[in-house]
Protein: Medium-chain specific acyl-CoA dehydrogenase, mitochondrial
Organism: Nocardioides humi
Amino acid sequence: MDFSLSEEQRAITRTVRAFVERELFPWEDLLLRRGMESVVTSPGLTKDEKLLLQKKAADHGLWGVSAPEELGGADLDPFTQTLINMELGRTFISFTFGGEASPMLYRCNEQQRPDYLLPVLHGEKEMCTAISEPGGGSDVRAMRTTAVRDGDDFVLNGEKMWISRALESDFAVVFARTPEEGAGGITGFLVDRDLGWTAQHIPTMGAEQKVATMHFEDVRVPAANVLEGVNQGFDQLMRWVYDNRLFRVSARLVGAAERMLEMGTAWASQREVFGKKLADYSNWAFSLAELEIELRAARLLTLQGAWKASAGLDYRHESYVAKVHTARLANRVADEMIQLHGGMGYAMELPLERWYRDLRVIRIYEGSDEVNLASIARNLFRGNVRLGAVTD
Ligand SMILES: Cc1cc2nc3c(=O)[nH]c(=O)nc-3n(C[C@H](O)[C@H](O)[C@H](O)COP(=O)(O)OP(=O)(O)OC[C@H]3O[C@@H](n4cnc5c(N)ncnc54)[C@H](O)[C@@H]3O)c2cc1C
């Protein structure tokens, strides 16, 4: 393992950090204020605001970092993507560069690309991914929504739940059972909003993620909108989850923990109680030191997984391990940094309170703690991995 950065990786990291500090940090205050006005529906960036920022980023060469070269993207390796996401995680603002799409969409065929993939890359359309249902989210195979062939269409019936961006998306990638197709299985469909699905907001504790239920009642979807192939859905999902957990979610959590700890260190160095700086109280000094150890461990776990992915090695186990550790750490850091800041930590004026609410869900979605722990345990008991091995 060699985690020393190439010149190019250093330059990219510097550029992204500068972009985040110069262009995104100034928006934080405004978004915190929006959050104070409407706790239930507080939005992040609007579509226009996001596009404006994506354009500025593109001027600095930050466009399509994960997209294949044939789509004009930079197709950066997982390790470099991880470095970028660590920088983007330093703000609570949910922002991605232009020219990016869910990896699922890169699998659109030539006919589907102009209506789905390209408009997403250019910020003209928004999409959501509909997997979870009221009957269960962790157990994907338990989904009940069905798609039954009728002539040149599939007819979708069922209900999805907790779907991020379902309220504003132009189309959804919907996963449904296709019980009458061959051996039966799960299939992904590109489903435009005007085909007739409806969505209803579910208020939650987080500010950033607006989620909704989605209803499908005899929604007819052309068979041409099947993503990749009938009964391929489960495999598509499995390919996607590992990348997402590692390069995106875990990497951003490392960035978030780092920024909150920086805030805590700065606060402890200047805030006095009973005539002494907080930093001079050993409980706070030790708490920050403990969290610095955990942060380093989180960064190394994430980089090690990304390094394996970049080397073409199996990184699934690493994605489980990194996701559990980074999700727990970021939540712990948010909690402890609020405590360190006292009343100010609890106020909506600082990002800590926002992070505290937004980060909680990370232990529930994208593979909950328990789902990842179950996968880690299974690998250990079945001998799929060597205990504690990081160089295999
Ligand atoms: C804000 C938010 C955004 C979301 N966005 C999306 C989205 O865009 N698209 C989408 O499809 N879904 C989305 N989800 C759904 C999310 O993926 C599910 O909530 C998640 O998979 C958990 O499913 P569940 O809520 O049904 O809980 P359940 O599956 O019912 O789990 C309940 C509890 O059991 C635990 N558990 C699960 N398996 C095991 C096990 N083997 N052993 C022990 N305990 C276990 C879980 O960790 C959890 O604590 C979102 C959820 C939220 C809250």
Q: What stands out?
A: The domain at 127-226 is CATH 2.40.110.10 (Butyryl-CoA Dehydrogenase, subunit A; domain 2). Residues 128-132, 136-138, 162-164, 204, 206, 209, 211, 361, 364-365, 368, 370-371, 374 surround flavin-adenine dinucleotide (CB under 6 Å). The mean pLDDT is 95.
